[in-house]
């Protein structure tokens, strides 16, 4: 069952709900099970979800990056694992 509800704001969905809805939309598009009359609406919804998830990821990355320098001040020690996402594997 799709989580998409008419009028549901993407921002009000949890990350997992939004990801699940996006997976559902992609599955329907891949299977060709979307009626041509609603194809544009579903595609637009998918784009909105991708934009929202990307925004959340970027905000989280920025927050983590801003907190990392605080680790270097703990006990006066340098923490080599305190690297930005870009310094290591994001997966």
Characterization of the model:
The chain is mainly α and 91 residues long. It is built from two helices and no strands. The protein has helices at 15-31, 36-72.
Brief descriptors of the model:
91 residues; mainly alpha; 2 helices
Instruction: Report on the biggest sheet.
Output: none
List the domain count as a whole number. 1
- Through-space gap between termini: 29 Å
Poorly predicted regions: none
Question: Which percent range fits the helix content?
Answer: 55-70%
Average pLDDT, rounded to a whole number, is: 81
In what range is the share of β-strand residues? under 5%
Radius of gyration: 19 Å
The gross shape turns out to be: rod-shaped
The number of helical runs is 2
Oligomer: single chain
Question: Could you give the count of β-strands?
Answer: 0
Structural class: mainly alpha
- The helix/strand order is HH
